Amino acid sequence: SAVISQKPSRDICQRGTSLTIQCQVDSQVTMMFWYRQQPGQSLTLIATANQGSEATYESGFVIDKFPISRPNLTFSTLTVSNMSPEDSSIYLCSVDGQGGYEQYFGPGTRLTVT
Amino acid sequence: GDSVTQMEGPVTLSEEAFLTINCTYTATGYPSLFWYVQYPGEGLQLLLKATKADDKGSNKGFEATYRKETTSFHLEKGSVQVSDSAVYFCALPNGTSYDKVIFGPGTSLSVIP
Question: What is the SS3 string spanning B65-102?
Answer without folding.
Answer: ECECCCCECCEEECCCCHHHCEEEEEEEEECCEEEEEE
